User: Fold this.
Amino acid sequence: KSTEFGIKYFPLENCAISAAYFYTVVDNSIEFVYLWNKETPVDSLTFFDYIGDTYLNLGKQTTQGMELSVDAAISRHLSLTASISVVGGKLEYNPSSIDTNKTKNNYVQLYNNGEYLTNKDVKVLGLARRPAMAGISLTYKPTEKLQFRTDVKYVVAHNDVFYNSELGPFGALSVIGIEDYALMDISAKYTFTKSLNAIVKVENVFDKKYIEIRGFTTKGRGVYASVRYNF
Assistant:
């Protein structure tokens, strides 16, 4: 179930302010789990107590957040767009939601956080890879044919996941912090005719080293040039 509420306000003729709030609940989310021998205490489990692994419909994921944006023409030649988004959430698991016909009442361990669903509810606050972000764009048009644009994006420090071998005999996922970072892109566009234009763009101007997802590379500085013709 998802609910969203938004509003758009025009304080001036060439200025618009937008705000939106959303709230989403997913029940019976699909989880990958390990099954362990119910006859052995959890603290004493070893590889030999492994029963198997499977997927179960259990748990509830709640996501909520807000977005704010501003679009404004500062002057005849200069315009600005700015936005910010914040996302939060939680995961909740109840042992009563376990399909015991499938698990045979054995221990259920969640792979995505290493928790065992024994006789207590489990709640995990915060969602990985959901960073808060802010951005601003400035567009300058000295003439009708020439346009310069600067885009800046800031990503707040947030959590990513990694494999933690200490969470149970087989290990499971745990969270690790990712540093915040800011990126800047600049571009210039010239319109020769209604059908023909040329664009030069520099991404990640300062060649910032950053991480979006652990284990995956990100782009360094890049320079692009293109010519477009619309038939």
The two ends are 45 Å apart (CA to CA).
